[in-house]
Every structure is written in C-alpha cells, then in structure tokens.
Amino acid sequence: MRVLVVTIVHHPSDARIWHRQIRALLAAGHAVTYAAPFVATGTPFPIGVQAQDLPRAQGLKRWRAIRSATRFLRIAADQHDVVLLHDPELLLAARGVRRVPVIWDVHEDTAAALPMKSWLPSILRSPAIATIHFA
To answer: Are residues 100 and 57 located together in one domain of the fold?
Structure first.
C-alpha cells in the first residue's frame, strides 16, 4: 500500500507520527511519502521514505502552509492508496481529494484545545469548535 502522511503543524520528528506510525507502516512493507516542514524546522529529510517539504503553520501564519499543502495534495494524493492527515488545517487542503480515502488522525481533543490557542481570535473560537465537531 502507498501511504501519504502529511503535517504542517507538527515537527517532522514527532514521536507519534515518525517514530510510531511511519516506522510501523514501513515495517509492515508499505511505501510512505512524508510531507512535513523539514526545512522550516531544520530537520534533515528522512531516509526510507519519499519526503516532501512543506511550509510550517505557526500562530497566525497558516495560510501559506495550507495553500502549499493544497497544491501538493492535488498532485500527490492520487498517487497513493490512502492519505493520513495530522492537522485540522489540512482538512481544508484535502477538500478536493476524491478518489483516495482521507483519514484525519486526531492526536488530541481538538475542539477542547481551541480555547487555549492564543493565535485564534476569540470571536472565531465558537465557530471553529462547531466546525471541528462537524468534521
């Protein structure tokens, strides 16, 4: 199986994504493409996977990363059997992916964590929480 793993928020060496999920996929014989903010975090491209650099989404600086991820997913998603997303922002980027299953791998209670995000204006918190519950 060909698996596309994407994050624009997490560090590429994130223990859950890289050390557990991707390594388990590789050990099971799957081909993995890992799209993450390698350059922005100063992380070398990993060996054993196809790697794609994406900008990092931080604070209010998220749209550039989302647009880059959207462009990348339009090109790359159909070359894979499944797409694994690790950030709620990527749900926007994947909205045009139709022929491949898209899985949002939720790490936390995203809706409960939104009030703690200082970068999210308070007026948008309630609509954002409702959107996350809907997703």
So the answer is: yes
Note whether 78 and 131 are same-domain residues.
Answer: no
Contact 18, 99 (CB under 8 A): no
| Residue 135 lies in domain | 109-135
**Residues 122 and 97 placed together within one structural domain of the fold:** no
- Residue 68 — φ and ψ, nearest 5°? -65, -45
Within 54-135, residue ranges assigned H as helices are 63-76, 89-93, 110-113, 122-134
Q: Within a 10 A sphere around the Cβ of 78, how many other Cβ atoms?
A: 13
**Contact status, residue 108 vs residue 87, Cβ threshold 8 Å:** no
Same domain membership, residue 51 and residue 18? yes
The pLDDT value given to residue 116? 54
105-115 pLDDT per residue, tens: 876 655 555 55
pTM, entire model: 0.80
Please, is 32 exposed, middle or buried when counting C-beta atoms within 10 Å of its C-beta (0-12, 13-18, 19+)? buried
Mean pLDDT of the chain: 87
Tell me the two tokens of residue 76. Answer: 């790359």
**Structural domain tally of the chain?**
2
Same domain, 69 and 132: no
